[in-house]
Amino acid sequence: MIELTSSGLYCRAGDFYLDPWQPVERALITHAHSDHAHYGSKRYLTHPATAAIMRERLDEPYIETLDYGQPLSINGVQVSFHPAGHILGSAQIRLVHRGETWVFSGDYKTELDPTCAAFEPVPCDTFISESTFALPVYRWPAQAQVFADIHEWWRSNQADGQASLLMAYSLGKAQRLLAGLDNSIGPIFVHGAVEKINAVYRAHGVALPHYQTPSEAGRQQDFKNALILAPPGSAMTLWARRFAPFSDAFASGWMRLRGTRKRLGVDRGFVLSDHADWPGLLSAIEASGASNILVTHGYARTLAQRLREIGVAAEALDTRFEGEQDAAGEIEEAL
User: Fold this and answer.
1) pLDDT computed for residue 216 by the predictor
2) H or E segment to which residue 195 belongs
3) What is the DSSP letter of 68?
């Protein structure tokens, strides 16, 4: 039902694309990260929260929306969106045609997250899964422990008279971190790029603790007790100089590997990802009940091989999706 083309994954029966990486006539979008939501298509269909983020990021004029679980027939193909648990508005796309059901998962995670709807297994015949962290080494620690470690680091920095600069991707990860931070420890500040997305989250009912942007606080603000949440690479910018002295940290699934933390040169690394870890991927695939698995972006061949070893028909599908970017990703202009 879905084929790989030069523009992306294409459903010929419905005449639409799923997260295309080139402009097309009609695009169904799983979520608003830039490797899945590209500029320039004539028509988009996505979840209402994703549409709001896309309008903020891409200024796309024509976006139709579809709530979770709401069916829509497109040229005889029944389409519905279902929670992927990745970020606000993220969806798996279910396609039913001539008695066959396919699900394109986009990016997903199986951990609970107060800032987005929880992942829901969707029974299907063919399941298209990501594989960003599809190696056995990638097993996420309990979220409560991660936040306890962040709070301990923050308090330690306060005792040393320095600010805490915590770097995370501005869409999804930053809001998840904010929702879990204890603002009784000290003041919280966010980068302007984070605040733009926060506004969309708040508009969709996501509760976030009190914070300010540095510009709101003014130049006389003392940041030594503060935690500042900013995009990756911010520690290297002029924008960050106002917080000195500071300790910097990065929150990402890539922090599971000591070598990555060392290469980044950050003081601390916190293992927190908006993607499924190795056990999460295997459990999600099993829960789909699919007899055929297609694996995209990440360690696709590793996951496909593992699935074949346990008797599941699986193959890697080469796409241009990136999953969670590594150390070089998403350095944004300071606002």
Assistant:
1) 85
2) helix 192-203
3) B
